[in-house]
């Protein structure tokens, strides 16, 4: 059906005196300035000091020191230690006042005692500093735990309810200095509007691997006008997900059917199976996960390795739930099942030329005229040979039986634009507006976000390609997109353990971009 396009701190030297071994003694053992020690050098012993004339005026003891005190003016020769001029009379000459007992003083305190005081003070300061650091670290860890509100494993569920009487705006303003919400590096991310239209659901893995669901009322989400972004979750809970692997791709869908609001969440286990857990109302518990489908006539339904290629979408008019995934065999497969029979999955179509390690995306738009309601199913994925994207579409009025064939949509703008290249292992995300306009995101070869725009109406190729700056993503990370309050939002990872949210316009210019903090 389709042709294959080809594929310092230096150490001070020790001072030594070869004639006087005392020279290298520690300070507490030095005796050269204390005349009481007989073993001190003779020139320092009192019995050997020169017996010369001595001026008895204690206030005019003299010693020739510099040019102002000449020998001709002061003939007496005296021992400088005990006959120095009064302190302050000799410019530039500083000396320590001697004290009996062999210890010199400075500023009225013995040196040894002074040193001891400083040592004790330093120890006290170190103890205080250590206590402060310990307290700070403990507070930080508690803050991080509370931000995730996650359990110790993915096997138990818990939830928290936000205070409905709190002021959302003042809470957001007071939390701009909080740490960002911690997530698992390269976590899967899923975002979808809740089926009853009350708000947005966001899913990701916490650092311990547990799976977190947040529900945000639309009015609680603030605009992305600063680098700090705080969303107040109305509820936050941990979903039981036995068998879940770290960094699994995630996708979710929600819709109303027979008066109930359904939620579906898909993830993978270590065997590559796609597991589904669902809740049959907006507040009910989650079902035990089961494999979506074990095998089709194409072979086992197994996702390809660490591929992010897993995307759910649904049609309210058919009504049908679709699951689009990258199969281990090297193609993308579209599964479907009617809302009325949750276990009746089947394979509808396989798509060739696929990069099975990259992401995929799908959506369903509905148009109505005088005679019929038409659902247009669109799928996107990476081309394994050209690093570009492949786009297919099908229009149907009721069910697959007798539906027209799938049509490959030419992507001439994407194919000829150097900004359009898609990274292997890069994820995809699709946001669809109420009129059917589409914004497709994927990871580029330079770890940047690429954005492609599509108009409403009949399936056509992209109208333009943009590259976000800033907008770097963690290599191999996942992303999710959606429409919140008529704004296109992309949730992605630009840091290893945090989520970022970008709000672009249709031309790819970022109107807001920040690190996500979730509070409850």
Beta-strand percentage?
A: 25-35%
Q: Which regions are unreliable across 5 or more consecutive residues at pLDDT < 50?
A: 1-49, 51-55, 58-72, 74-107, 141-177
CATH architecture label of the domain at 149-163 and 183-519: 6 Propeller
Radius of gyration: 39 Å
User: Which fold name corresponds to the CATH topology of the domain at 149-163 and 183-519?
Assistant: Neuraminidase
Report the end-to-end length measured between terminal Cα atoms. 52 Å
What is the count of DSSP helices, taking H or I runs of 4+ residues?
A: 3
**Biggest sheet: strand arrangement:** 3-8-6-5-4
- Biggest pleated-sheet summary: 5 strands, antiparallel
Biased composition (Low complexity): 146-180
Keywords: Membrane, Transmembrane, Transmembrane helix
Organism: Sphaceloma murrayae
Region (Disordered): 1-26, 91-111, 144-180
What does this structure look like?
The chain has a domain of 352 residues: Neuraminidase. 10% of the residues lie in helices and 34% in strands. A hairpin with a 7-residue loop joins strand 17 and strand 18. The radius of gyration is 39 Å and the shape is globular. The two termini are 52 Å apart.
List the helices and strands and how they pair.
Blueprint: E1 105-106, E2 109-110, H1 111-148, E3 158-161, H2 168-174, E4 189-193, E5 199-205, E6 211-217, E7 228-232, E8 235-239, E9 251-257, E10 260-268, E11 274-279, E12 290-291, E13 295-296, E14 299-300, E15 310-315, E16 320-326, E17 332-338, E18 346-351, E19 360-368, E20 373-382, E21 389-396, E22 407-408, H3 412-416, E23 428-432, E24 438-443, E25 448-454, E26 464-472, E27 479-484, E28 487-495, E29 498-504, E30 510-519
Parallel strand pairs: 7-30
Antiparallel strand pairs: 1-2, 3-8, 4-5, 5-6, 6-8, 9-10, 10-11, 11-12, 13-14, 15-16, 16-17, 17-18, 19-20, 20-21, 21-22, 23-24, 24-25, 25-26, 27-28, 28-29, 29-30
